[in-house]
Amino acid sequence: MTTHNHDTPNPYHESARDDAENKALTERVNKMEALLLEKGLVSQDALDKLTDIYENDLGPMNGANVVARAWIDPDFKKRLFENATSAIAELGYGGLQGEHMVAVENTPEIHNIVVCTLCSCYPWPVLGLPPAWYKSFAYRSKVVIEPRKVLAEFGTTLADDVEVRVWDSSAEIRYLVIPERPEGTENLSESELAAIVERDSMIGVTKVSAP
Ligand code: FE
Question: Which fold does the domain 58-203 belong to in CATH?
Answer without folding.
Answer: Nitrile Hydratase; Chain A (3.90.330)
